[in-house]
Structure formats: C-alpha cells, structure tokens
Amino acid sequence: MKSIKAMTDFLGARTLSAIDSGLVERYKLHRSQQHRKNARDGRLVSPASINRDLAVLRILFSLAVRLRRATLNPVNGIKFFPEPVRFSRVLSREEEARYLNAASPLLRDVATVMLETGLRPSEVCQLRVGDLDQQFRSIRVRKGKTASAQRHIPLTNRAYELLQGRVKQAGGDWLFPSPLNPLVPVCRVNRSHEAALRRSGIHTSFRLYDLRHTALTRMAMAGVDLPTLKELAGHSQIQMTMRYVHPTPEHKRRAILKFEEFARVG
Questions:
Q1: Could you tell me the pTM of the whole model?
Q2: In total, how many domains does the chain have?
Q3: Residues 121-139: tens digit of each pLDDT
Q4: Is 120 domain-assigned?
Q5: Separation CA 248–CA 40 (nearest Å)
Q6: Do 245 and 151 sit in the same domain of this protein?
Q7: For residues 235 and 4, what is the distance between their CA atoms, to the nearest angstrom?
C-alpha cells in the first residue's frame, strides 16, 4: 500500500499510455530525494523501498498488458538500485553474556526475551500483562507485520520466570512500560543497545534485531524443523524463515564430522 500511495502521489491521474520509461526514471529520482516518513534523523527513502515501488509498478503493468489495457511495460529495462547485503549476526554465548552484563535492566529483559523466543523488538515492547498465559506457560503476540505474526509462543523456563516477575511488578497493562510514562509501552531501546555495546566492548556489527536472528538460528541448530520454526517466527512464507537461519561455523563443522562418521560406517 505504501508503494501504491507513493506512485499515485507522483503519477497523479495519468493514463497508462502516458506512463513511459522516462517518467519511471523521473519517479526514481523523485523518490530518491524524498525523506522517509516519520524519520527523525532526516534519512532519505532507501534504495530497497524504491525498488519495491518499481517491482509493484512492473507487476501492475504486466497485468495491464495481459488484459490488453497497455501495450508495453515501461518498467522493463529500468535499472533497479543496488541494495547492500545485510549482514546478520549470530551471537556467541560469550558475547551474549558480555552484552547482557553491560545492558540496562530494561534492555536486559527485552534482550533476554528475544533470545529465548525469537520475538521482534517491537513485539516484545508491545506485550501486555494479559498476554502471558501462566497455565500453558506461553506468550501471546497480538499483532505484527502480517496475519502470521499473531501467534502464541511456548516459553522456556528462563523467559517464563522473567515475564512472570514483570507481571508481578507491573503497575498497568504493559509488561515493558516506558520509563517516562508507565501508561504507554516503551517504544525503542536502541540508545540503550548502543550504550551496552560500548560498555561490553563488542565492536563488530551487532544490531538489536540480531538477537532474533540468534534465537532462530539456535532453534534450527537444536533440531527444530522449518515448519515449526516458521510458526514460532511468525513468518507468512517458509522462504523468509530460511533467510533467518544462519548456522555457525562450529555447527557446520559438527555437521561435517557427523557426515564423515556416517560415511566411514557405511
């Protein structure tokens, strides 16, 4: 929907025949100079967002050509922006301990829940007291980016005890209330994350979201099958789950040792 709105704002009431490759190129330039909506730091619209816009427009014109509402697809031949490869980190146990020891109490709890459940940062921050099912020892995720994000996740002992303690301490609806206003949930812990990185001495690239990568990767290495992992992660497509799974070098080495042992016995 964001792509449709952005293109409609630029293209206006033009007919399909009035949209050519030159106009698409001008749209690329126009979008690349726009600031991201609600971005406090003034960041421009990312190349990935513009590429998604172009992909949507290409699909729409492909349909129009099949329906004989258009003769050519003006997006064909348009060069998409190169996108940087996003490096996903999987924390070692030693890094995890250093990070949690350096984290503030609020960040430590958010990070621990992410490491034990694979929840997104926003999902953790939006948890309510009523979302903890103490009978079945699970947590409910009410909403997310897709319908698949709505799910119940069984909890490890570590996560359950942490959340149970937060229920007892809660003074309102939120398990992770804002330090400034307990009536609303905490929105972001990015500054606390950056401070924890400085204190811990972890200098390599490490985003808060990588705690989710770490959890899902550990689940996969523990033998959780992909369909189950997909449900726990709240993904709509299993291909997305596979992108989040990054076996560590140690895990791959153990896999080769297992293969070698099997080959010898055979």
A1: 0.68
A2: 2
A3: 999 999 999 999 999 999 9
A4: yes
A5: 36
A6: yes
A7: 23
